[in-house]
Amino acid sequence: MKRLLTGLQPSGDLTIGSLIGGIKQSVEFQNNYDSFIFVPDLHAITVPQDATLLKERIKKNVALYLACGIDPNKNTIYLQSENLYHTNLSWVLECSTYIGEANRMTQYKEKSKSRENVSVGLFTYPILMAADILLYDAAYVPVGADQKQHVELARNLATRFNHTHGDIFTIPEPLIPKIGAKIMDLQNPTKKMSKSNENQKGIIFLLDSEEIIRKKIMSAVTDSEGKVYYDVENKPGISNLLTIYSSFSNLSIQEVEEKFKESNYGNLKKEVADLVVESLLQIQKKYQEFMESGIVDEVLNQGKEKVNELARKKYEMVCKSLGLGRY
Ligand code: TYM
After folding, report:
1. C-beta 193 within 6 A of ligand 1
2. 3-180+294-322 has which CATH code?
3. What architecture is domain 200-288?
4. 20 to 30 A from 24, CA-CA: which of 31, 124, 145, 175?
5. How confident is the prediction along the chain (327 residues), in pLDDT tens digits per residue?
6. 144 CB within 6 A, ligand 1
7. What's the CA angle centered on 210, arms 266 and 275, to 5 degrees?
């Protein structure tokens, strides 16, 4: 069975963007692939984090994966920092990554713009991500559009390594959702909804209360035309709301457009809010149960053991092919 792998950083609370771009596809495909989902906690420290908050968020991420429908019997669930081979392989890959190639990563350019002291970790972050993927021979990597370039780097690094050292890595393919590859900020619909945006009014967090969700959706920025149809360029706010509705209802964009063609913006927003509230309240109920049970530690213990064993084998292959160590 081919392997599918993804991860969501615990650098902020997860949003409906994380759910739609990152988790939803893993849930949909968990019956068809050998599925891995992990918490890239080492990625989170590429920018400063509060230790207590980070620890909490790691646990919250896992409980949310489960609450969103990730079945622990069908998925291997683990923490990146509990398997040292991720960083070992990352170093090996760094040594075959060209500076120019790393420089071209657009997310680094964006993230480093708004900071004063940019860490080297933020720069090499996509290489650690390549290690996360290549260590387990993942064939498919479900991600939102913003991570496509990083998966492409992993592909290039794998291809280059295999070319020089033999058939060591599986070449991964990104799986980008057809609808919802980039959920936009509700206050600034030309910008991605991101868990780390300062202004939280445009972000719906998975654990927001009903009142807050409704408030945020009802005050989403739209346009002055007054007609509901999908046109990302000219109507980014309305198109984003239609996309959110489509993602939560599993209706196509055309079907959603048809449903709302006679609606005014207020009605559309109300219906989007109803649907999002209904879905998130269900997730939140399950989340509470998982947080209070011991399941998070249980699945992480199982996952840790399994992935360390798998990664050790792959890392040994890599070392052998490079002449490292005493294999
Ligand atoms: P991260 O934590 O920023 O985001 C997690 C996943 O959610 C997707 N996503 C979105 N999709 C659509 N619209 C949005 N507004 C939105 N916001 C987030 C992201 O595309 C991503 O799929 N580097 C990765 C984490 C990572 C990883 C990996 C992923 C580390 N190693 C290996 C896959 C495989 C990241 O920062 O994602």
Report:
1. yes
2. 3.40.50.620
3. Orthogonal Bundle (1.10)
4. 124
5. 999 999 999 999 999 999 999 999 999 999 999 999 999 999 999 999 999 999 999 999 999 999 999 999 999 999 999 999 999 999 999 999 999 999 999 988 888 887 888 999 999 999 999 999 999 999 999 999 999 999 999 999 999 999 999 999 999 999 999 999 999 999 999 999 998 888 999 999 999 999 999 999 999 999 999 999 999 999 999 999 999 999 999 999 999 999 999 999 999 999 999 999 999 999 999 999 999 999 999 999 999 999 999 999 999 999 999 999 998
6. yes
7. 55
Q: Distance, CA 259 to ligand 1 centroid (Å)?
A: 30
State the catalytic residues: 111, 192, 195
Pocket test for ligand 1, best of 143, 192, 232, 244 (most atoms within 8 A of CB): 143
Please list the residues that pair with 79 across neighbouring strands: 39
DSSP string, 96-111: TS-HHHHHT-HHHHHH
Break the chain into its structural domains and give their ranges.
Answer: 3-180+294-322, 200-288
Q: Is the pTM of this model over 0.90?
A: yes
The DSSP 8-state label assigned to residue 200 in this structure reads: G
**Atom of ligand 1 lying closest to residue 18 CA:** 7
Look at the alpha carbons of 193, 199, 200, 202 in this order and tell me if their dihedral is positive or negative.
negative
Ligand 1 near 105 CB (within 6 A): no
Query: Does the C-beta of 72 come closer than 6 Å to ligand 1?
Result: no
